[in-house]
Fold:
Amino acid sequence: MSTLDDDAVASALAGLAWEREGNELVKTVKLKDFAQAMRFVNAVAEAAEAANHHPDISISWNTVRLQLSTHSAGGITQKDLDLARRIDGLG
Structure:
């Protein structure tokens, strides 16, 4: 899988609740409490398993930070955008 060019990433990000940091898509979600953060992370894990594509996840009490990149390709690919859209749909 090949990486997307800067224009393709920028265009896709216009419709997503994610930001670009270098070769990664990044999203930070603040939730009510730790239990809600863990429920969200579990939902992300299910989506990631279904997509066979896994974000890096950091959890700090009520804050979850997600980082998506296709490491084998060396940057952002369509797989990252597809999973980002699916995660955004978890609401």
Observations:
- The first strand starts at residue 19 and ends at 21.
- The mean pLDDT is 96.
- The radius of gyration is 13 Å.
